[in-house]
Hints:
CATH superfamily of the largest domain in chain A: Spore Coat Polysaccharide Biosynthesis Protein SpsA, Chain A
Largest sheet of chain A: 9 strands, mixed
Strand content of chain A: 25-35%
Number of domains of chain A: 2
Number of strands of chain B: 31
Shape of chain B: globular
Number of helices of chain B: 9
Helix content of chain A: 10-25%
Structural class of chain A: alpha/beta
Radius of gyration of chain A: 21 Å
Oligomer: heterodimer
Amino acid sequence: MASTVGVIFSSVNDENVPELTKVRSKGSIPYGGRYRLVDFALSCMVNSGITTVGMITKNNYQSLMDHLGSGKEWDLARKEGGLILLPPYSDESEMLYRNRLEGLKGASAFLKKCKEDFVVVADSDAVYKLDYSKVIEQHAKTNADITLVYHEHECGEVNSYIMLDTDKTGKVTSIDVNQAAPGVRKHYINVFVARTSYLLNLIRTAISRGYSSFSGDILIPAAKTGSIYAYKYEGYYQSIDSLQSYFKANMDLLNKKVRSELFDDRDIYTKINDAAPAKFTAEAKVSNSLIHDGCFIEGTVENSILFRGVKVGKGAVVKNCILMSENVVGDGCKLAYVISDKDVAVSEGTSLAGCAKKPYFINKGMHI
Amino acid sequence: MLRKKECVAMLLAGGQGSRLYALTSNIAKPAVCFGAKYRIIDFPLSNCINSGIDTVGVLTQYQPLVLNEYVGNGQPWDLDRTFGGVHILSPYEAKTDTSWYKGTANAIYQNIRFMKMYDPEYVLILSGDHIYKMDYDKMLEAHKATGADCTIACMKVPMKEASRFGILNTNPDGTIYEFEEKPKQPKSDLASMGIYIFTASKLFKYLELDEKDPDSQNDFGKNILPAMLNAGEKMCSYKFEGYWKDVGTISSLWEANMDLLGDAPKFDLRDTERVIHSRSPLAPPAYVEGEVVNSLIANGCDIEGDVINSVIGTGCVIEKGAVVKDSVLMGNTVVKAGANVNYSIIDEEVVIGKKSKVGDVIEKASLIEGKTSGITVLGRGITVSDGGNVPAGEIVDKNV
């Protein structure tokens, strides 16, 4: 593959899921029993042969730093390149960035030092598995200025997505932002590829002209005059832009097809915590659930995702729940449609229920 | 300041483990899987780091590929260090006198230069075939307090089993007056656990003396310890209380796995005080749909059949209608629909065909006498064809 550097936005529209981003940025939202959202973009980059990745952080990034560490779990603890955190107030950005362009401006000092010809910029707000090297291949072939990656799916009445229209050659003809247009649309998934020099030029121009919106001031005009192409990603994709979509993205993992698409073939890397294997006692009854190492199950678990070290007490019934690491569900509890953040304890005999459209959320560290 | 380490650990991991039969055809015993996500060597390595010992030499000889790959740079145990850390020590070619490790003592002798790099006061000798959690630092404290030249960790074993072990005969103050290797008529029930702390200078002295003796078998139990006793060096016992199991036989390996199960397991891996580290694979959490009762399940499994009183290693698939009972699956094994696995140890990467039958129910199989006491053993990578039958107590190392 052509030499490529990666840039990841770890904080994007964190306000869409205020419950989960209260104590962390979007990229470090726990997902699927063991992962963080950022693992997907980051692992895809590593699996595509990218060995230098800049991680743009904004606020609340303690949890993210704790997760990423030196990057060794992604093979990114390197002498040359590797994982580089790009926090605010560093180098050329003197303020907290307010939009994507200012975020990229903060990354430009890092990009200038990179010798790589191409750059992939991705968000960490979604679950997907994309081989970026294929995007770069297409990008080089079409000789595009920018290649935008999209996923085609049914879009609802209300959305804040960016939609693309393309011609037969894959060239982007128009770009719509924030338009309610139900039906199957080409949803730009916030992953793009450009030549590093081209992107740096773009940032410089944008700053000097006082642009503030990457989509409004750059992409939309460029679609009319420049050469923007689209790449179609056809695998599993779920963006996390509400508690509801977070719930759906997790429950999708109970589907074998989704699991095997995401996890077979190439690994999704993540921080490793050593925990003993999950233990099921003689009273345990588990069906259609994901159970991580370290769990201790004495009760009933159905259609649920249990992260590391969750304890489910005797006679407790957990249905359609997402319980993050180190949760303790006391004896005789009844939980349905509950999403509980890390380190939550629910005392004996408590009943809590939400519904599919509005799961009941419990903050990190709460004792109920 | 001259850099040194107070105590260096030397882990004897070269043994073949011939009494594990098919389980060690291609890998050294310390690399054998245990407890769903561990290998035996995780226990001594984790004990080292949990006891503050960060310099470990791992002596390998027999089939070292898997072991070398597994230990790697020691990162899973925090043993990747700029000074110290874990080092694989295999036999090497020398200008004169090139040889394989002839015995446990000779293996350590050949690596005297490694130990001397760290200028240690003490050397801890460990073996890679036991399951236990132990604070070696406490033993080291005892070694210093008694002023011993050699301290041997020991524990009480049932008298009738005592002749399987090295037995320590001690004075009331814990000093050892006699050491008997596997005595026919044991005088005491204090068994050596194969864990020794030596004052380094004494160890080097007796290793060199032993090397010069052409009649020596170059073995710690048979030669070094008796030689030191005869010379009047101070030898002390250190009593260990807690779980310790030699997993050198099929039945003891099966038992040790079963000891992890139950409400009050004999050996609890979940104790977070002294975590056993391992090279955890990157698998998603286990998917569980079938009936799982009194069992351990590691990440990456896909369980749609029934699992009862069993230990299921990383990445196993148990299809609908399959039943696994009283068994140990080491990892990445597929048990196809309708298959029945009873009272067995199944090595990694095994495929058990549809409606096949492996082993017999524990009530019947455990009455069988033989090398495995009725436990059925399937070696690494073998395939049992659809509808196949492996009788109880068989050891299988090729496809059936």
